[in-house]
Specification:
Layout: H1 2-57, H2 69-74, E1 76-79, E2 88-92, E3 98-102, H3 103-128, H4 132-153, H5 159-170, H6 189-238, H7 242-273, E4 282-285, H8 286-300, E5 305-309, E6 315-318, H9 320-336, E7 343-351, E8 354-361, H10 368-371, H11 382-386, H12 395-405, E9 409-415, E10 419-427
Parallel strand pairs: 5-7
Antiparallel strand pairs: 1-2, 2-3, 4-6, 7-8, 8-10, 9-10
Helix pairs in contact: 1-3, 1-4, 6-7, 7-12, 8-9, 9-12
Bound molecules: adenosine-5'-diphosphate.
Length: 431
């Protein structure tokens, strides 16, 4: 692995040097072009100024100055003497009037300036040839980035690493106590943590399922035992004793009804867990559903007083049958856990983007330590267990499942001996 990194580094440094060299050459050529262009401009400017100066020295006399191009050219020429320094620029006005300008004198003035300029330009071009290292230094952050990107894109594990992970996963038994993957490999640490978290969640859900099955069996054992007891009693004395017969039939009816309800509740939760409870959501007025349960409660249960406070414009989107079921669970609890003659209050509210319904009783209430458990499956407070209320501890789990499925919230306010209020908050339907 170390060797391959070194190779990669060497390769990337080489690559960077050749790129820097290419950039350096192209910059140098551009500078050279600029120098040539500048020198050409200076030459044109200096020569132009010289010839303009010469023209200014000439007296053209009385002529009107209008000449053809040919005449103009014939009147201006260069002549050389024996020595090179004798080069003259001549302007001939007419046969008598001839102006001669010694070019060498002019060059004498210009030459030192030209030499200084050329030396400066030469030095600049010379030093520009050595700027590759500077370019390489400036390119380094970019190159580092590219090398890192290359390393990330080419990130690969040794097959050995994967094998150790595979072994660690295989050695885990879903039922065994050891549910942690540990390979000791640092590169695989994040995968290990993610897998261990997943395993923890799976184990927790498996534990919940097992507890649910065991609690359900336990709950079903009681009515079955009661039914068996009455059947035995009927078998022994029921044929002769009519009072035993009637009592047993009554008890069998009650217990089988209780068992039916329990099995239905278990089925509902099991279907919910496996995602097989389908909701048929429609837009409806919550007042209508609450009023229906309010009226049916008054009809079924004459031992309590019922009141209902409606609220206009309380539309929600949801499964009507399921929402009705959640209301029934709360109302039945209100009746179960309060005395005869107590009042149970139904209320609907619409505030902001929320619509809520509440069921409030004046019953036994609960302590805060009990309230935190009431949505757990099969949970029943000691008081509820001791009383003859006959619940199963599944009602609120079902109500919570329904409210969760509607993305709602259940709030509980309860005080022992004062009463309990359940409020279910749902999203208001758009108009
Ligand atoms: P159960 O069938 O026992 O009523 P639930 O799931 O509906 O089962 O309720 C769980 C427990 O919460 C009850 O056993 C009881 O202890 C408590 N509880 C629920 N509703 C009320 C209430 N309105 N007043 C007092 N306690 C309540």
């Amino acid at each position: 692995m170390g060797e391959s990194t070194a190779k990669k580094k060497e390769y990337s440094t080489k690559g960077m040097s050749s790129i820097a060299r290419k950039i350096s050459v192209s910059i140098w050529l551009k500078r050279f072009g600029d120098v040539l262009f500048l020198d050409f401009l200076i030459l044109v400017l200096v020569c132009g100024s010289y010839f303009y100066y010469c023209e200014k020295q000439v007296d053209w006399g009385s002529g009107d100055g209008s000449v053809t191009e040919e005449e103009w050219r014939d009147n201006r020429y260069f002549i050389t003497g024996q020595d090179k320094t004798d080069l003259l620029y001549v302007i001939q006005v007419d046969e008598d009037s001839v102006y001669k300008f010694p070019v060498y004198d002019f060059l004498k003035y210009v030459f030192p300036g030209a030499v200084v300029l050329l030396i400066c330009q030469g030095l600049r071009l010379f030093f520009a040839m050595f700027q590759t290292s500077e370019i390489r230094r400036k390119l380094k952050p970019l190159n580092d980035l590219a090398v890192k990107a290359e390393r990330i894109s080419g990130l690969s594990f040794d097959t050995g690493q994967f094998e150790s992970l595979e072994h660690a996963i295989e050695s885990i038994s879903p039922d065994g106590p050891e549910t942690q993957i540990h390979t000791g490999n640092k590169d695989l640490q994040s995968i290990e943590v993610a897998l261990n978290n997943l395993l923890k969640r799976m184990k927790e859900s498996q534990r919940q399922q097992a507890r649910f099955v065991s609690d359900a069996s336990h709950e079903l054992r009681t009515p079955i035992a009661v039914i068996q007891g009455y059947v035995n009693m009927l078998d022994r004395w029921g044929k002769e004793d009519e009072s035993v017969l009637n009592e047993s039939i009554e008890a069998l009816k009650n217990e089988s009804q209780h068992m039916k309800e329990l099995v239905e509740q278990l089925l509902f939760l099991a279907r919910g867990d496996s995602g097989r409870n389908t909701l048929h959501k429609v837009r409806f007025d919550l007042n209508t559903v609450i009023r229906e349960v309010f009226e049916e409660s008054m009809m079924i249960d004459q031992k309590h007083k019922y009141t209902f406070a409606e609220c206009p414009n309380a539309f929600v989107v949801g499964d009507i049958a399921m929402i009705k079921q959640s209301v029934r669970i709360l109302v039945q609890n209100g009746a179960k856990y309060s005395k005869e003659g107590d009042t149970i209050r139904f209320g609907v509210k619409a505030e902001g983007g929320q619509v809520s319904y509440s069921i409030q009783d004046e019953g036994i209430g609960m302590r805060d330590t009990e309230v935190v458990h009431i949505f757990e499956r099969f949970y029943r407070s000691d008081q509820a267990r001791n009383g003859e209320t006959g619940g199963s501890g599944l009602g609120l789990s079902i109500a919570k499942w329904i409210v969760d499925a509607h993305e709602g919230v259940i709030e509980v306010l309860s005080r022992p001996e004062i009463g309990t209020r359940f409020t279910v908050i749902l999203k208001k339907a758009e108009d």
